[in-house]
Amino acid sequence: MADTGARTRRRGKALLDAIYAAAVEEAAAAGPGRLTMDAIAKRAATARTTLYRRWSDPLDLLLEALAELHPVEQPDPGAHDLRGDLIASLRLMTDWSSSAAGRAVMAIVADPARDPAVVEALFERVFARRGGTFTQTVLRHYAEHGRLDPDRLTPVVLDIGEALVTKRMIDTGTAPDDAYLAAIVDQAILPAVGPETETR
Amino acid sequence: MADTGARTRRRGKALLDAIYAAAVEEAAAAGPGRLTMDAIAKRAATARTTLYRRWSDPLDLLLEALAELHPVEQPDPGAHDLRGDLIASLRLMTDWSSSAAGRAVMAIVADPARDPAVVEALFERVFARRGGTFTQTVLRHYAEHGRLDPDRLTPVVLDIGEALVTKRMIDTGTAPDDAYLAAIVDQAILPAVGPETETR
DNA sequence: AATGTTAGCTACATTCATGTATCTTACTTT
DNA sequence: AAAGTAAGATACATGAATGTAGCTAACATT
């Protein structure tokens, strides 16, 4: 009975990466409520026992997977086109939200049975390296360069763009197009942050 | 062996109401992914067979339960205090979102494994009788009375309040307090809808 | 080359939810 | 009062996921 299916045997990073990817994809597809060791193992083409040797829980595995995935791309604002930089930062956000990792995170935080400690750990691990939310990075950048009034950058104002994108994705189930992102910037964010200071 | 537990036997509306309540509570507690006939039956203190006589599916049951529950309360704006009416409408929203029905709906729409047809049916059944979203009702009312510029009430602007409340609830897991609702109105909605027209 | 580690596989008992079938009996209708 | 309806209870076969155990062979370390 010589030839079993597996030609090579993965180890270390190669194996872990496959498991991480499988966990995130499975969470994005099924939601954390339906996440099982079984399904992750099947998707990663490995044995369930391999998973149990490292993690006790599907959620435990998923959190580690999200932490190990590539960090979220950060907006890189210039200082000459506030409107364009804001739209670009929202586009970064929709790109990430549409990814498996983004949908997995959304599923976790929207889960009514979520553990607050889990959500906190998630925010720390996934967003720790980032300077804040997407539009926040841009707005703070312009405020530091004297182009926006820092007093108007309240927590509410810094959340407007992300909130509208999130709601739109919840309502329609898909990422908004460029026209909608532009509308968010023109009709909601820019009126809230006030007039741009003249460059001297 | 006379005395079995059940003293009376529920029928018709009394039974259905108990089942509906159990389904919504169970969905709010566990999320639609973990919703089972078993758990609903236990919570409603009835037999699983009773559920299967009427519904084939936990989700089928839940949708009917949500449709049969009391409709969402509607904001009743005056025309003299835009700021106060907006805050009150957002308070209505947080009250509903905090209820079992609200959390159940949130769990359904945020479910990555959601069926678009289910979401559509849900919106039709639950929001059909309502004139729109919470702040939308207020803003439209003021526009009709000539106090706001109708051209500024775009889909994006009408969504600002609900979007910020939703994001806040996702982030913190609890309903925002009055100060935060006031901040949303003052710092995001009012700047976006523009100056109020003078009363003649 | 010998040794240690562990991925991959199989097997098993357990638990939980499913869907169906059957029976009794409380309640309703006629 | 008799007949019909359906709630409530029990039982059962099925399937999925769990967590554990044991084996073998591929790969790494010495």
What does this protein look like?
Two copies of one chain form a homodimer. With 200 residues, chain A is mostly helical. The first copy, chain A, has two domains: 12-68, Homeodomain-like (Arc Repressor Mutant, subunit A, Orthogonal Bundle), CATH 1.10.10.60; 82-193, Tetracycline Repressor, domain 2. Helix content of chain A is 64%, strand content 0%. Chain A has ten helices and no strands. Chain A has helices at 12-30, 37-44, 48-52, 58-68, 82-98, 100-110, 116-127, 134-144, 155-172, 178-193. Chain A starts with 11 loop residues before the first helix and ends in a 7-residue tail after the last helix. At the A-B interface, helix 1, helix 6, helix 9 and helix 10 of A face helix 1, helix 6, helix 9 and helix 10 of B. Chains A, B: InterPro entries: Homeodomain-like_sf, HTH-type_TetR-like_transc_reg, HTH_TetR, Tet_transcr_reg_TetR-rel_C_sf, TetR_C. Chains A, B: It comes from Glycomyces luteolus. Chains A, B: Pfam families: TetR_C_11, TetR_N. Chains A, B: Residues 36-55 bind DNA. Chains A, B: Keywords: DNA-binding, Transcription, Transcription regulation.
